[in-house]
Amino acid sequence: MRGLTALLAVALLLAGLAGCGGGDAEPGAPSGATLVLDFIPNAAHAGIYAAQREGYYRDAGLRLTIRQPGESTDAPKLLAAGRTDFAILDIHDLGIARERGVDVVGVMPIVQRPLAAVIASSQSGVARPRELEGREVGVTGLPSDEAVVDSEVSADGGKPEEVKRVTIGFNAVSSLAAGKVAAATGFWNAEGVELRRRGVPVRIFKVNEYGAPPYPELVLVASRQTIEQKSKLVSEMVEATKRGYAFAVAHPSRALADLLAEVPSLERPDQAAQLRALLPVLLPAPFREPVLQAWAKWDLEHGLLEKPLDVEAAFAEP
Prior knowledge:
The protein is of the alpha/beta class. The chain contains 14 helices and ten strands.
């Protein structure tokens, strides 16, 4: 879902990414590699920046360049064109890219659970998803929002068609704080945390608690060509990134400092609160095929995918 909100003009990054990869490096020199993020840097990326600042990528023989997305970056196309070695994608975007014929492959889960949620104002009196029937729920206008609302209301025994959807763009925090809607779709680690920091009482209904499987929201991906031709690079990247996330979970204060040192424009209180919320779902773990199969089925049932996904081809841990 997050990836769908941050797609940007490919041309803006092509020039900057043109030199990615190992190139003509001297024998024994670190391998150059480029990673494109799914969104502006935030606490979900703490393990990546920790791995960078703590020297884990360097220890693995990598000289990693981390790129932030700009307007409309299409990371799958950059991967397919060899303009970046790795990217972080929302898992739904990975499925959509493959459906469009782009052979990108998930090589490591980054966030172990869905981040999508329906967030209800406590003042609305909504205590569970089925009570959204007849109420106004703010959505961004993205198909993934519709899937979240439908899944949660139907899983709770309600009728999704009776929910009044109101397109509010990406203004869930202000809309809920002002009481303009009874609830809104958002991310429990971002909008949910921000609302509570502002003192706005809310109830958060996570999508994996109402109908969706516990799929990994964010995934480290590479192209099939990169996996086949640069298998050592992929293995080194995955192992160093796992090490970074394990460090972030064990030493969140230092990981936060690493993130802020690399991206000083971020607000420390915001990122500290988000990281605290995310810690339980950041500990590295392997993909679980039954969960991925259930996720692909869920996406198909809710219209995010148009045809069944070949899960075995879409995910491969080195």
